[in-house]
Model the fold of this input.
Amino acid sequence: MHSYSATYYFSDSSQPYRAKLYLEKNRWRILVEDASLSFRKEIFWPVEQIVPKSVISEKSIFCFGSFPFQTIEVDGADFSKALLAFYPKADLVDQKFSWISSASTKSFLALALVFVLIVVGAYLFLLPKMANYIAGKTPISYEVKLGETLKENLLDEYTVSSDFSNALNDFASEIDFKSQYNIHFNGVEHSTINAFALPGGEIVIFDAIVQKMTHYEQLAALMAHEVAHVEERHSLKGLFRNIAGYAFVSFLVGDVNAILSVLAENAQSLHNLSFSRKLEESADAYGYEVLNQNRISTQGFIDLFKMLKEESEHTLDLSFLSTHPLPDERIERAHSYTEQQANFSHSEHLEEKFLYIQSLLKKSSDYEAD
Ligand SMILES: [Zn+2]
Done:
């Protein structure tokens, strides 16, 4: 006869009783004894109605009956094995459950959970920092190659005007942008008011934004601002952050080409890569310095912002503001910088070249209207 010492609880009491459990063919016979041996009671549980609550190596708990249940706790490491041997067809030992419940498994699961939390934490908090770090470590030559690949993919879907592009670059040649990159402007025919910078020195300017300008200082301000995004690697960092997961894995497996191809596939995300206020401020500050050093009035920034604000009131086609946020503080900062600027003068060259660009755009929009 198989018997096990156990602790038994009646359905209506939390008082523990010493008990002996006998495993019989289709039932458990439970012999309950009062501590003082003043009473003995025999209880039978049909095996198919026994509900295992927790079957672990040190202690197994089972319930029986309708609520409130009778409960029995059986000590001993071998009990679950005995149950499996004695009632091979009964569902008394949920093997998966008993596996999970065992103490060593619990600590294993806790460890696994901690590991998952660390990985998720790293993904959410460290990855952006890592993306910045990788972007910072990317050699310029690689960044330039990346920019060219992105440009090819991206400009496929836009009409690039070579006349407009040449005129932009001719205008830009009058300005020293203080950049370590070879800056190149791409003029695109598109009704959206937008401009953005690719990593490595390629900058895209849509004709709609230039058409709305009234003087050359605005174009110089826009260019200087975009050059700052290149110079400070904002686009590269933004791209790396966008694809941080891929970048992270590629970095781990040391496959730089994988990053390149994923970036190329994500070229579309470039024209709506939005910058934080902090990056925008930083790009403006760089732009003020460039304009100041080139003796161009930073009033260009104020008027550029004013034009964008006004346009935003009657067009929805203004991606520039959604990617380059323009809170009032930015405009105020442009004012306070401009009030202090002493060193600027009017440039006939820039004026001429600006008017030439606008005449080109006017011609092409006249042509479209015909
Ligand atoms: Zn910007």
Q: What stands out?
A: Residues 96-100 have pLDDT under 50 and may be disordered. Residues 2-101 form a domain with the PH-domain like fold (CATH 2.30.29.30).
